[in-house]
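yo

u said u wanted the structure for the complex thing, so here. seqs first:
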Amino acid sequence: MAGWVVIFASLAYLSLLFAIAYYGDRRADQGRSLIKNPAFYALSIAVYATSWTFYGSVGRAAESGAEFLPIYLGPTLVFLLGWFMLRKMIRISKVNRITTIADFVAARYGKSQLLAGLVTVIAVVGILPYISLQLKAVSQSFSVLLAYPEVTRPDPAGTTFLLLDEALWVALLMAMFSILFGTRHIDAAEHHQGMVAAIAFESIVKLVAFLAVGLFVTFGVFGGFADLFGKAAANPDIARIFAITGTGGISSWVMLTFLAMAAIVCLPRQFQVMVVENLNERDLKRAIWLFPAYLIAINLFVLPIAVAGILHFDKGTVAPDTFVLSLPIAERQPWLALLVFLGGLSAATGMVIVETIALSTMVCNDLVMPALLRSRWFGLAQRADLTKALLGVRRGSIIVIVLLGYLYYRLIGETYALVTIGLVSFVAAAQFAPAMIAGMFWKGGTRAGAFAGLVSGFVIWTYTLLLPSFARSGWLPLDFVDNGLFGIDMLKPYSLFGLTQFDAIGHATFWSLGVNIGVYVAVSMLTRQDAIERIQAAQFVDVFKTGAAHETVFWRGTATLTELRDLVARFVGQERAEQAFRDYARARAINLDKTREADADLISFAERVLAGAIGAASARVMVGSVAKGEMVGIDEVMRILDEASQILQYSRQLELKSQQLEAATRDLREANLRLQELDRLKDDFLSTVSHELRTPLTSIRSFSEILLDNPALDRVQRGNFIGIIAREAERLTRLINQLLDLAKLEAGRLEWQMSDFDPGPVVQDAVAAVQGLIVEKHIKLDSDVPDGLPFVRADKDRLTQVVINLLSNAVKFIDPGQGRIWVRARADGDYLEVSVRDNGPGIPHDWQDRIFERFMQVKNRDDPKPQGTGLGLPICKQIIEFFGGRIWVVSRPGHGATFNFTVPLSRAITRKLVAAA
Amino acid sequence: MRRPGLGAERLVGLFLIGAIGFSPPVLTLFNKPALVAGVPLLYLYLFALWVLLVALAGVVVMQLMPNGEIKPPPPANEELPPPAAPRAGEPRADAMEGPR
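structre next:
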């Protein structure tokens, strides 16, 4: 393929990137953010997938199978914890205006400049190999693509004449992009929205390119997954990569997962996109699943491409790192190859741009500025505007970092595969994890502990990974790698103290992180925190509890307002400083024109504004230089913190109380409703009862009056009337008896005569008792009560009462003439079960439970007068439950009803008693 | 009342499932160069678990409110059913009448 086509395509692509970033920045300036959609946030986090993923994963898979996966499984796991961890990190950073990892660590451990500088050094040294990896990938893919239609191995790095080396030009273009869109103005807490938009776009491009080549290889060149893997399975040499086999195998798997979990949080560029560029904490919700989903998508075709590459090319003719590109070339697909090249380019540029912006901020705030501010000729006496200087330092450091990366690539790059270079950087970045993550959840970590942990981890990383890589590239004698330092076997960098269980990366991870954590914890426990460390520790760990109300840092001294304003203006520019102070005044409704002395609150506000520009550590030093007086002492801090936590506790108790109150109110309201209902039922019942009582009374009175007034009535008539009076009196008695019965039952004052008896005759007696009614209404009754039923333990008379009640209920509601009733008794297990079925109108479903409640009667539309007292079934229920059985109804409206009840058998009760004794 | 922090707890639960599912003891069960449905067994397992975790995380997260609680269900109808209003036209009552 002609060189100019590739170069033209690359330039066109980069121009598009510039255009998107420019547009994104313009929209942000107009206040109409382009990246409001949370998907942009998730996609920008996908800057995690660099050219290492794009080319290197396939290379790794071709060599050692599934071992490329932990690098993506680790971040997935971290994002599942994201709601706890990442959200806290974002909140802390927003409250404290933290803009880099160095700032984060320094701010947590008492705004220490020393710590910030250390983190910066580790980050720059550690990440350089990673940047060089991107350059290597771009240059490799460029030379492979140029050879189209030949399939070649890429030229070894560093063999091209410097000015003709495309990697150098790509590096400089990337630096230009970072400068244009990463260092436009100085308040780094403001977001680089244009840059984020461009990065999100690049994430889409690289995913599309990778999926395209994956689909093409799997379904275009081969006949789908089964075909591809089937052919590979035939060759045991290839089938080897279907399982985890690499050096260290499965124990390295764990180390790699840990490593990736730490890296996703600790890599400077991930911190930049996840924390600093986060517009809204809610965006994290989308990212929790969308980012892992992206990782799944971009890994789906790694193994198929690796397998296809091994199948397709003779061993050793093509580097596995370039399979992604070589396969389309070998298949004569120039456009696909070009797309792949652009995908790789976008993966590389995305990483380099974000990484250099993050690193340059660190270098500027935590290395260069502190040094400049200390030097006399740049001293504080001058009132010059320093914003230009700050921007200049950042731009300069971007170029220096990119060039250092290029240098590393020229010197070392050829010795390693892409993945190994990247992992070296991962281990370096992972060193921040103990200080950062423990710092968010454990107040006890001290500055000395963090410092000691970081130093020891970094030293071990240097010895076990960095120096050996120099040695293998010929820049150091190889002797110490093979035989150990000073010839001591125990000090071999790849098997320190004889540890050989892991591969080089796993080995370095284990020792560096293990020692780092151990030293951090141990030293933290042996040293004490000073006042500002404690304040900061509390602010970090309790960020969700204290929130914005607790932002105040405890300056006791005062400064004049003019001094303070000038100080801020020197670093963020006159205009922005004015704006910040105006906003502050408006938010607190004070007039700054009348203020001369700045109070503690205003001083800490100025410090936070400065922190956004030059980092927490430098900001504290600068503010300290104008604020007279000192930080408050440790006792005072503890008192203030105590008060704050007490108030917090009170408010939480209050909250709890009000919740309980709400619940109680709700319960009361329900109880009240229930009471009202019961009250209404009672009224209904009273009117029913008085009606029932009055009816017989009325007839008794009227018939007795007739008898009184007409002594001359004939015998027959008199006999009739007296009979009516007697019957009505009897009805009256019955009604009153029922009322008394129920009252006694409910009060538990009824006398029970419990005995063991044969239930059969009892049921028969009850049937006989209602026989008169049945005959009168022409009802057919089937009784199925076998002889010799087992004995039950109950009160004979009460049981009869229950059966009679059920039968007379049935009689009452069925049509005379067609009515049928079935009575059935059976012994079932430990119980006697009796059922009374009729073919009446049935009971609606919503009434089937309630008819056993007192006073509940289903009323008839045609006859609103209730047909009974509403006491019969409740009495039955009380009786049956006293016996230890239960009563229920089964009914389908229109198809009759079946009342069932059970009574325990004597033998079952005896058995239980024996068992209990 | 819903327990505070339930949604976040569910995510931690998913994390634990993932941490165990991707751990060596479990992986060794699947670490065989065998093909299942034309796909290497190990990869089939890893990707299936991976997709499952992410999908479940998506479901949980969609219900997450800013304070980490699960969204409450739509407010239940506050009115109780009209107390003991018997439906007309359904003639059935209970009563206790002695034998005549």
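Residues 41-62 of chain B form the longest helix (22 residues). Residues 30 and 42 of chain B are 5 Å apart (CA to CA).
cya
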